[in-house]
UniProtKB/TrEMBL annotation:
<comment type="similarity">
    <text>Belongs to the GPN-loop GTPase family.</text>
</comment>
<dbReference type="GO" id="GO:0003924">
    <property type="term" value="F:GTPase activity"/>
</dbReference>
<keyword id="KW-0342">GTP-binding</keyword>
<dbReference type="Pfam" id="PF03029">
    <property type="entry name" value="ATP_bind_1"/>
</dbReference>
<comment type="function">
    <text>Small GTPase required for proper nuclear import of RNA polymerase II and III (RNAPII and RNAPIII). May act at an RNAP assembly step prior to nuclear import.</text>
</comment>
<protein>
    <recommendedName>
        <fullName>GPN-loop GTPase 3</fullName>
    </recommendedName>
</protein>
<dbReference type="GO" id="GO:0005525">
    <property type="term" value="F:GTP binding"/>
</dbReference>
<comment type="subunit">
    <text>Binds to RNA polymerase II (RNAPII).</text>
</comment>
<dbReference type="InterPro" id="IPR027417">
    <property type="entry name" value="P-loop_NTPase"/>
</dbReference>
<keyword id="KW-0378">Hydrolase</keyword>
<dbReference type="InterPro" id="IPR030228">
    <property type="entry name" value="Gpn3"/>
</dbReference>
<dbReference type="InterPro" id="IPR004130">
    <property type="entry name" value="Gpn"/>
</dbReference>
<keyword id="KW-0547">Nucleotide-binding</keyword>
């Protein structure tokens, strides 16, 4: 059984920074973790790249040769990845052992996890290869200042959750930039009634019905939209987020069994 995080979220929400902080954290904890770049447009990395989609296809070549713009080019690259799951990805995954823990740093284009099946098929492939996968959705805490932005963030996260059908952890990133923690506290584990009344206050009365159904169907109906705050300056915060994710994919649960199975005779 392998373990994987699929790190998704809007452009600039802090996915790559999270991946590199997670890498350093695990290095300190002497825990093995491999970060995979799935962004065909990425150029600089703060973490050692274990697998790189740019070895398969890169955005500059696609834009130049096919005359596509950056977003169309990216969609083309990701569809190419989808076509190569059985060869490129399978070969790359063969380099990893049973217990390995992979973290996939995804591109930020929101269409990738809302209305094209690329990531979904990618995840299905990982599952077939015996990986336990968790969707890790990052949302920038700078957007948490008012209820309308919060709802739009929730809806984007929900659409990813529904599309990917994975265990899912929502993270509120960049907490170091939040000066008044009170401002975001209301949004971490939101009360549907509170959200509804806030929403009604900042929107015109004709939206009341829409607001009600958004909150009832989206936030309350799924009762899954809650956020874990992440402050990368604090090891304890990274540790907490990682523990939540590990729990979702049952990482570490069979550790006891493995120690018992271990045969000292095999050790040189
Ligand atoms: N203060 C602060 N800035 C952050 C944090 N995480 C990311 N940033 C900044 O936010 C910007 C975007 O961060 P990235 O990690 O590149 O975001 P991303 O989600 O990988 O972006 P794309 O790959 O382009 O979608 C960079 O300028 C980062 O330095 C954080 O925890 N705190
Ligand atoms: Mg990135």
């Amino acid at each position: 059984m392998g373990y994987a995080q699929l790190v998704i979220g809007p452009a600039g929400s802090g996915k790559s920074t999270y991946c590199s902080s997670l890498y350093r954290h695990c290095e300190t904890m002497q825990r093995s973790i491999h970060i995979v770049n799935l962004d065909p447009a990425a150029e600089n990395f703060d973490y050692p790249v274990a697998m790189d989609v740019r070895e398969l296809i890169n955005l500059d070549d696609v834009m130049e040769e096919l005359g596509l713009g950056p977003n169309g080019g990216l969609m083309y690259c990701m569809e190419h990845l989808e076509d190569n799951l059985d060869d490129w990805l399978t070969e790359e995954l063969d380099n990893y052992l049973d217990d390995d823990y992979l973290v996939f740093d995804c591109p930020g284009q929101i269409e990738l996890f809302s209305h094209v099946p690329v990531l979904r098929n990618f995840v299905e492939h990982l599952k077939r290869k015996n990986f336990n996968v968790c969707g890790v959705y990052l949302l920038d805490s700078q957007f948490m200042t008012d209820v309308t932005k919060f709802i739009s963030g929730c809806m984007a996260s929900l659409s990813a959750m529904i599309q990917l059908e994975l265990p899912h952890v929502n993270i509120l990133s960049k907490m170091d930039l939040v000066t008044n923690k009170r401002d975001v506290e209301d949004f971490l584990n939101p009360e549907p009634q509170f959200l509804l009344s806030e929403l009604n206050q900042c929107m015109a009365p004709q939206f009341a019905k829409l607001n009600k159904s958004l909150i009832e169907q989206g936030v309350d109906g799924f009762s899954m939209v809650s956020f874990v705050p992440l402050d990368l300056r604090k090891e304890s915060s990274i540790q907490y987020v990682l523990a939540q994710i590990d729990n979702c994919i049952q990482y570490g649960e069979d550790a006891d069994v493995k120690i018992k199975d271990f045969d000292p005779e095999d050790d040189d």
